[in-house]
Amino acid sequence: MSHDILDICIAAALVIGGLFTLVGSIGLLKLQAPMARLHAPTKASTLGVGSILLASVLFAYASGAPSYHELLIIAFLFMTAPVSASFIGKVHIHLGQNRKPLPKPARDRIWATEAKREEDTPDVLEMKADA
Amino acid sequence: MATRFMQRLFPHPLLSVALVVIWQLLVNEPSINSLIFGAMLGVLLPFTTAAYWPNRPQVTRPWKLIPYGLIVAWDIITANVTVAMIVLFKPNRDIRSTWVNIPLDIRTPEAITALAGTITLTPGTVSVDLSDHGHALLVHALHAEDPEKVARKIKSRYERRLKEIFE
């Protein structure tokens, strides 16, 4: 009985994961602007991969050999995915493909990526002294 | 004297704990042997690399990370559904992508990193850039009628909590 419920949970997690990964791929094809397209893979990499790995944990538990590697995969994926997304966004600004003007930063002069000259580059030490 | 000795031995206590936990998960079989080896790694690695990161990142209220993580997990699920609906059923010409400018109250690099990561992980928003002195965060929203509203929501929902955790 309990195995039936577990099986249903595993199947549900797999289907949900597959669905969101599929929607992520559809978004990649359908959306037009590069920045909008960037939103599609973030979806696939959070809920999509997350629930497929959850299904893997549940299956390992059901088959009597519990496995926790998946938790590590989720943790490292969630830590690294924002970095690559930010890099792609920065490249987008660097290449000058951005058609909508950027808003003015709240209290500062420019965004870090817009810095062209040496004196424009942000000073980490200065940031620390500010804090 | 004793506390200074402890500080030398454990320059980054949170890192030590994280190393032990990660080692346990890597070994995948909880046993006393792997726990001891994990503890050795947890002491040795921070101790030998201490010279390369002299500043200890401050996490004043680490226990508040747990409710924060649950809130973010819930937001990831709901935002996933909303964004999936936008991707599948909204015609491209109706999608209002926009830049959002978020003035920051948090100042420590760890807190800002955590906020930027959270924003990217919740679908629909991607954090892209920081202003030159770190007082504002540039975020791209897939669909937002009112950028101000997005900025307010991020500030009240995530930044306020991160300020409690890190500062």
From TrEMBL, chain A:
Pfam families reported in the protein's UniProt record: PhaG_MnhG_YufB (PF03334)
Protein's recorded name: Na+/H+ antiporter subunit G
InterPro entries for this protein: PhaG_MnhG_YufB
GO MF annotations in UniProt: sodium:proton antiporter activity
Domain of life where this protein originates: Bacteria
Alphabetical UniProt keywords: Membrane, Transmembrane, Transmembrane helix
Residue intervals passing through the bilayer: 12-32, 44-62, 68-89
From TrEMBL, chain B:
Membrane topology: Multi-pass membrane protein
GO molecular-function terms, A-Z: monoatomic cation transmembrane transporter activity
Major localisation: membrane
Keyword entries, A-Z: Cell membrane, Membrane, Transmembrane, Transmembrane helix
Transmembrane segments: 9-26, 32-53, 65-89
Compartment annotation: Cell membrane
Gene Ontology cellular component list: plasma membrane
Entries under Pfam families matching the protein: MNHE
Family: Belongs to the CPA3 antiporters (TC 2.A.63) subunit E family.
Protein name in UniProt: Na+/H+ antiporter subunit E
Gene source species: Alloyangia mangrovi
Species classification: Bacteria, Pseudomonadati, Pseudomonadota, Alphaproteobacteria, Rhodobacterales
